[in-house]
Design the sequence.
C-alpha cells in the first residue's frame, strides 16, 4: 500500500536567517549539543526533534512514500501586517513550489489577515504546482467561520484548493504546566474554529470545500451531540445553519494524529474512511512516530486502511 503523509512541516532554506542575516523576521535553525534548535523572534524552540529543513532527510526520517509539506505555522505570519507578510509568503510559496516532485506535494500560505488579498493570492497560487494552503485556526482574534473570511472560502471552493487548518500554537496557550498548552490547547483551538465554521454555515454553503483538520479535528466530534442539541433547540444556533451540524462535520477531512487506535476507529466510523487521511505531525515531539502502524492497529479492514494510508490524499491532491 502507498503511504502518503498529509501532516509534515518544513522550513524552506530560502526563509532561513542565513539567507539574509539582516532581516530579523527570519528563523534560525542550528544544532546545540546535538539537538536541533529553532529560533524565531528571539525565542528558542526545541520541540522540533526531526529534520526541519533538508527535504531529502525529511523523506528519509519520515519514511512515507510521499509527503505533503506545509510551512511551520509561525511562518504563516498571521500576526504581521499583510503588507509585511505578503513578500515573505510569496518567497516561501515559490520555494515550496520548487520542491514539489514525485515524492513531495506542497501547501503554501496566504495573508489571511486580509481575506480579499488572501483570496487573490490563493487563486494565483492554484495556477502552479502547489495543492492548496495551510491556515491558522485563528487570525486576528477571529475564528474561520467569521463573515470576514467569506472571499477566501469562495475562492478555495472554486479553485479546488486543499485548505489545511492547523492550530496557531499560540492562540490558546492554556496552563503552562505539564505541556497542556500543546496537548489540550492546540486541539482545542482547532475544535473551536471547526465548530464555528459548521455553525456559521461555511461547510453547508460551500459543499465543494476541501478542508483538512489537524490532530483528528481536536475534540469537535466529541461535542457533536451538544452542537446537534443546540441547533435543534436554540434560535442562536440556528441562525446560519439549515441542516444538522453533523452533516457539516462529515464534510471535513481529518488527519490520523490522535495517538489512539480506538479513537481513530471512532473517527472513521463517524466521518467515513473516505474523509480520513494519514498524518504524523513530523518533525515535532508530539508527532505520531509510526502513523501507518496506528492506522493498521485500528482494525479498519483492508479497503479502509488502504484509503487512509494513501488513496484519499492522492485523490485530494
Sequence:
Amino acid at each position: 500500500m502507498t503511504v502518503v503523509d498529509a501532516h509534515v512541516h518544513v522550513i524552506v532554506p530560502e526563509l532561513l536567517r542565513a539567507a539574509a542575516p539582516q532581516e530579523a523576521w527570519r528563523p534560525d535553525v542550528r544544532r546545540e549539543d546535538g539537538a536541533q534548535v529553532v529560533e524565531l523572534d528571539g525565542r528558542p524552540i526545541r520541540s522540533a526533534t526531526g529534520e526541519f529543513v533538508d527535504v531529502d532527510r525529511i523523506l528519509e526520517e519520515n519514511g512515507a512514500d510521499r509527503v505533503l509539506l506545509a510551512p511551520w505555522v509561525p511562518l504563516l505570519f498571521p500576526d504581521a501586517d499583510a503588507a509585511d507578510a505578503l513578500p515573505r509568503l510569496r518567497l516561501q510559496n515559490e520555494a515550496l513550489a520548487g520542491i514539489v516532485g514525485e515524492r513531495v506535494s506542497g501547501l503554501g500560505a496566504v495573508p489571511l489577515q486580509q481575506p480579499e488579498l488572501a483570496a487573490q493570492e490563493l487563486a494565483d497560487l492554484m495556477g502552479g504546482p502547489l495543492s492548496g494552503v495551510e491556515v491558522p485556526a485563528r487570525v486576528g482574534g477571529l475564528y474561520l467561520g467569521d463573515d470576514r473570511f467569506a472571499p477566501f472560502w469562495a475562492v478555495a471552493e472554486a479553485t479546488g484548493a486543499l485548505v489545511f487548518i492547523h492550530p496557531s500554537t499560540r492562540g490558546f496557550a492554556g496552563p503552562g504546566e505539564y505541556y497542556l498548552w500543546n496537548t489540550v490547547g492546540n486541539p482545542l483551538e482547532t475544535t473551536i474554529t471547526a465548530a464555528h465554521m459548521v455553525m456559521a454555515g461555511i461547510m453547508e454553503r460551500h459543499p465543494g470545500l476541501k478542508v483538512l483538520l489537524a490532530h483528528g479535528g481536536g475534540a469537535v466530534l466529541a461535542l457533536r451531540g451538544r452542537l446537534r442539541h443546540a441547533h435543534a433547540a436554540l434560535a442562536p444556533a440556528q441562525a446560519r445553519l439549515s441542516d444538522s451540524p453533523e452533516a457539516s462535520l462529515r464534510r471535513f477531512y481529518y488527519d490520523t494524529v490522535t495517538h489512539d487506535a480506538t479513537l481513530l476507529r471512532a473517527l472513521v466510523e463517524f466521518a467515513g474512511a473516505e474523509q480520513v487521511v494519514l498524518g504524523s505531525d513530523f518533525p515535532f515531539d508530539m508527532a505520531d512516530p509510526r502513523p501507518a502502524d496506528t492506522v493498521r492497529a485500528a482494525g479498519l479492514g483492508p479497503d479502509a486502511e488502504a484509503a487512509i494510508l494513501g488513496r484519499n490524499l492522492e485523490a485530494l491532491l
The chain has a mean pLDDT of 96. The two ends are 17 Å apart (CA to CA). The longest helix spans residues 82-99. The domain at 4-316 is CATH 3.20.20.140 (TIM Barrel).
